[in-house]
Write a structure and sequence with these properties.
Blueprint: H1 9-23, E1 31-32, H2 35-38, E2 55-57, H3 62-75, E3 79-82, E4 99-102, E5 109-113, E6 118-121, H4 127-134, E7 139-140, H5 153-159, H6 166-169, H7 172-175, E8 176-182, E9 188-192, H8 203-207, E10 216-223, E11 225-226, E12 230-238, H9 241-253, E13 260-265, H10 266-276, E14 286-294, H11 296-312, E15 317-320, H12 324-335, H13 337-344, E16 347-350, E17 353-354, H14 360-374, E18 378-383, E19 388-395, H15 402-419, H16 435-441, H17 444-457, H18 472-485
Parallel strand pairs: 2-4, 3-4
Antiparallel strand pairs: 1-2, 5-6, 6-10, 7-11, 8-9, 8-10, 12-14, 12-15, 13-14, 13-18, 16-19, 17-19, 18-19
The structure holds flavin-adenine dinucleotide.
Length: 496
């Protein structure tokens, strides 16, 4: 093995100065600077991109975090906030001369009020831990990303995360009432409040989904809702994906808002079934999972209505969960789709884009054609109800050129999403992964407005820089590249 290269002297001296300043602010076990200690933080869930940080700070208190940010601001050290590192777009990827601030040690539930139906939690509390704590009061926190066993509430806030139940209950944005955060200058800012509406500009909505670029979250107050007494799920099989896609539109058009409406194509079903044994129909070209929850009478009536719509829309078979165990089994396949991809292929690239529901069938056909163009297989799972696609592009990074092709395949999917009136991300954020695609989605004026908001919170651009919002220069270069490649049509023109 090669010996690690010695850092250039200037960087080394600067590193020592920064570490000396930070050592005075944190207990020794809260600051990591040796390579073997910082290695676990070199990437998030987008493992294709890695970078060791200058150091990792793990503050235990809000006061430590404030002092840390003040010092970094004075020394002009960039910061990357980090939760559990499950993000899939590189949002928590370190910067070589920056500090990763992990909030993993701030993981206490501070208050749970069953009467107000709220929980006030520290940033490092796991999503699922909130529902587990609320279960004693028959309450739960609705947004349920498939990573909920590991991902943190601050990560959810930063990404405006969704999950299978967000069609009915809303995204993180709709379930968070208040965020307390520390600005890059080390000052406390509180956004939102205890009531449905808060006076002043709605900065909470601006902050949620801002990918760690506006402040570091130290507390989140979430809304809890009563656990429905009953939930049942229909598993519907379709002989072709187009009919399945159209059935999604039919369910919504019938005025039904299912608690969850998820679709998996044949490749996904066959990938998941041997792994999870969820009881899926492996002969189907696509399956839909369609959930109803509420009072028993409501559920029975809705299940009946949804079954009728699905059969009318062309379902070849339907099965309805007869027990809570069976419902969980049906969902287990969908929730394990990403890990199951690892059994089929050494590497996979999970895309995230959103399209208008009525264009689902057409986009699926487009993706199938791209499999031929790029010579790679793609399994499709989606939050079909809200039009959020998760194509899983399978490749082998050890085969020359395959990663490149996977990336180009992904870019083509995003371009198609924009072309049909959708967006380049549904819930995984922009991070580093989709920063160029932002230039295809937004006009120069729109990107300039995003930069203006960033500047208002972080004038020195030290908080998670070069993520989520492209510079105008970058967009100009992207536009030129696209024009040469002949696909400039995806770049919206100013004023378009
Ligand atoms: C198997 C798998 C399934 C997934 N399923 C879903 C899904 O169904 N729905 C979904 O929406 N996502 C899903 N994700 C993506 C990911 O889990 C979410 O984006 C999650 O919210 C990230 O949380 P985290 O704690 O891991 O954050 P990280 O990955 O650590 O960070 C994510 C972003 O949050 C910022 N951040 C973290 N902590 C703070 C803080 N204290 N203050 C300010 N900014 C902060 C980071 O800078 C970064 O930009 C999945 C990921 C995996 C690996």
């Amino acid at each position: 093995m090669n010996a690690p290269l010695a850092p250039p002297p200037l960087l080394h001296a600067r590193k020592q100065a920064i570490l000396a300043a930070l050592r005075g602010l944190l207990p020794p076990h809260c600051l990591l600077s040796e390579q073997e200690d910082t290695r676990p933080y070199e990437c998030d869930g987008l493992t294709a991109y890695r970078q060791l940080p200058l150091a990792v700070a793990l503050p235990e208190t809000e006061a430590q975090l404030m002092a840390l940010l003040k010092a970094c601001s004075a020394l002009r050290v960039p910061i990357v906030p980090r939760g559990a590192g499950t993000g899939l777009s590189g949002g928590a990827m370190p910067i070589a001369d920056g500090i990763v601030i992990s909030t993993a040690k701030m993981s206490r539930i501070l208050a749970l009020d069953p009467l107000a139906r709220t929980a006030r939690v520290q940033p490092g509390v796991r999503n699922l831990a909130i529902s587990e704590a609320a279960a004693a009061h028959a309450l739960y926190y609705a947004p349920d990303p498939s990573s909920q066993i590991a991902c943190t509430i601050a990560g959810n806030v930063a990404e405006n995360s969704g999950g299978v139940h967000c069609l009915k209950y809303g995204l993180t944005l709709h379930n968070v009432m208040r965020v307390r955060m520390v600005s890059m200058d080390g000052e406390i800012i509180e956004l939102g409040g205890a009531a449905l509406d808060a006076p002043g500009l709605d900065l909470l909505a601006v902050f949620i989904g801002s990918e760690g670029m506006l402040g570091v979250v130290t507390e989140v107050t979430v809304r809890l809702i009563p656990k429905p007494p009953l939930a049942r799920v229909i598993m519907a099989s379709f002989d072709d994906v187009i009919t399945g896609g159209d059935a999604v539109a039919e369910v919504i058009a019938a005025g039904i808002i299912p608690a969850g409406l998820e679709m998996m194509d044949r490749t996904s079903v066959r990938m998941v079934e041997p792994f999870v044994k969820a009881g899926y129909d492996t002969n189907a070209a696509a399956i839909l999972l369609c959930e109803s929850d509420g009072m028993p009478e409501e559920v029975e009536e809705e299940i009946e209505r949804m079954s009728e719509v699905l059969l009318r829309a062309g379902a070849s078979a339907i099965a309805v969960s007869g027990s809570e165990a069976e419902r969980m089994r049906f969902w287990s396949g969908r929730k394990n789709a990403f890990p199951a991809a690892g059994r089929l292929s050494p590497d996979y690239y999970c895309m995230d884009g959103t399209i208008p529901r009525k264009r689902l069938a057409e986009v699926l056909q487009g993706i199938a054609a791209m499999e031929q163009t790029y010579g790679l297989r793609c399994a499709n799972v989606f939050h079909a109800g809200d039009g959020n696609l998760h194509p899983l592009i399978m490749f082998d990074a050890n085969q020359p050129g395959e990663f490149d092709r996977a990336e180009r395949f992904g870019e083509a999917i995003l371009a198609l999403c924009v072309e049909v009136g959708g967006t380049i991300t549904g819930e995984h954020g922009v991070g580093i992964e989709k920063i160029d695609a932002m230039c295809g989605q937004f006009t120069v004026n729109e990107v300039a407005a995003f930069i203006g908001v960033k500047r208002a919170f972080d004038g020195a651009f030290l908080l998670n820089p070069n993520k989520a919002i492209p510079t105008l220069d970058r967009c100009a270069a992207y536009g030129k590249r696209q024009a040469r490649g002949g696909v400039f049509k995806f770049v919206k023109q100013v004023g378009a």
